[in-house]
Amino acid sequence: MTLLDWRDLAPEDVVPLLQAERRRYVERLHWDLAPALRLVEAARIRGEVPGLALRDDEGSIAGWAFFVLAGRQLQIGALHATTAGGVRALLDGIFSSPEAELAQSLTCFLSPSSPSVASALTRLRFDLQRHHYLEARLADMPGLLAPTGEGAPLRSLEVTNAAPAVRLLARAYAGDPAARCFAPTARLDEWAQYLGQTIATPSLGRWLPEASFLAGGEVPSGVVITTEIAKGVAHIAQVAVDPSARRQGLGRHLVLSAARVAAAAEAKRLTLIVAEANANARALYASLGFQPRGEFIFGHRGPVPRRVGGVTMRASAAVA
Q: Fewest beta carbons less than 10 Å away: which of 66, 90, 139, 179?
């Protein structure tokens, strides 16, 4: 097999791969990646998104991956191969890339197409966290038809009041290992970037401001951010509660408030992603009728060792 830079491939080679990825998400997760994949393909053609393609001995593409260097973090956006050896070859190729040499850390957040993805990441010393992808039918959601005036008062989340939401997210996730998915080093600028991408890009679907709320006053105690990931499918991209306001039913209130707006806009399903280790949140979502539909894995590891003059060095030291 031969590894190729996917930026050198013609669109007719790459578009079928992206279309297959779209079908996989739609069929398994009811999530339509088309808007995000169109952006990826446009950026690939411009040479802005590095990636690899694995061509087999018969000339067919047997695997592919793409990744980006954001700051000093390399983020793997997709990783697919028809064999375990292909997955390993793609990861080895990513580790050998110029971007990996500059990275202080490597991460991925993937819906794995086979168990070999997690095995290969473990072999390369990624610390893995499992996340459950849950789905609820809005018509069957307990409490959806309860009076809407109950619970803490809510106000719309808007671009103009995003700064308090950023600070709330940082407070809510302080000390939580799951925060690495969103803000790798828990800095406020990372949380601001995460929220900005969620609102302005299709990375987690199309933002639904009418179904996104802040709870509390000038210093909010809770936030829910809702998107649309397919026709008739709303997605809770984020729900967070200040530590001082927990165990008072605020998380349930936020989810139900978003669900009511989504249902009124003719959404039939509501989805979300929750860390396997977050037992309290999983119990809440189960009580609201959410059921497992898929799985994501988040992987994180430090810089890739590199050899300079026969001496193994860490990438962060090599570029200091």
A: 139
